[in-house]
Amino acid sequence: MPRNIFKKPPRKDAAAGLMKEKTDAIDHAFQHAGIRSFADLGGSWGVDGGYTFYALDNYPIESCFLVDLFFPDDARRRKKNFRRLQLIQGDFGSRDTISQLPELDAIFLFDVLLHQVDPDWQDIVRMYSALTRCFIVYNPQYIGSQTVRLLDLGEEEYFKNAPHSRDEEPYATVFRNPDEIDPRTGRKYRDDKGIWQWGITDKDLCDLMESLGFDKVYFENYGQWGPLKSFEGHAFIFTFTGKG
């Protein structure tokens, strides 16, 4: 296991309802990497921007962006308390969305890389590497021998590696009509970003970051991710050194 160069901070009351795995990574980065600006990509879904607001509640932020397709009322309400926060509504994998962002100290990628197709997760990292000097990542990581597109495993193996039922939508439609176009998105059903798409290995993620000049300076393994024996919850911080 790589050396963890940071010390554990105390858990803060503001973290109630959030994953400690992610708030710990935020704490480490903000305390030791001089983070004063960031973008939280896809950080609205399921947590109402909770990690954005955690950072704003606990650290001196000069500017930040919450980027997602939709914002619940609670996130919009809380945003009013922070003039430094901007909400950007759009697909964070779209170049039009990326063009609205300035250079930033950090990018949050929490539970989003495994969903990214067209552009794939590697392209997301490449595109945002030009805007930041630090990636803070938490992802269910695949412990198989190589990164896989989960749909390529076939239906039986797919549902052994995804925490969903084959009768659940949009999964049922994806497997019934994988190459048909979804009229809501204009994308093939198999390219739905709402489903689990990838099993990403640590090696492939770290090799990509290294090729872009980012060193891994923090890593925590939180063990098996839920019921999935082939996935573990891993947290990373990568900082730019320009050595790639």
Q: Would you tell me which CATH topology applies?
A: Rossmann fold
Radius of gyration from the CA trace?
18 Å
Low-confidence stretches: 1-13
CATH architecture: 3-Layer(aba) Sandwich
What string, H for helix and E for strand, traces the elements in order? HEHEHEHEHEEHHEEEHEE
The spatial strand order of the largest sheet comes to 3-2-1-4-5-11-10
Q: Figure out the total of helices.
A: 8
The helix-and-strand class reads alpha/beta
- Look at the structure and give the mean pLDDT: 92
Distance between the termini: 21 Å
Beta strands, count = 11
CATH superfamily: Vaccinia Virus protein VP39
Could you estimate the helical fraction of the residues in percent?
25-40%
Global outline: globular
Instruction: State which percent range the strand residues make up.
Output: 25-35%
Give the number of domains. Answer: 1
CATH class: Alpha Beta
Write a structural description.
With 244 residues, the chain is of the alpha/beta class. It has one domain (13-145, 199-240): Vaccinia Virus protein VP39 (Rossmann fold), CATH 3.40.50. Helices cover 26% and strands 26% of the residues. It contains 8 helices and 11 strands. The protein has helices spanning 20-32, 50-58, 73-79, 95-98, 121-129, 155-160, 171-176, 202-211, and strands at residues 37-41, 63-68, 85-89, 106-110, 134-142, 148-149, 181-182, 187-188, 198-199, 214-225, 228-240. The strands form 3 sheets. The protein has a 7-stranded mixed beta sheet with strand order 3-2-1-4-5-11-10. It has a two-stranded antiparallel ribbon with strand order 6-9.
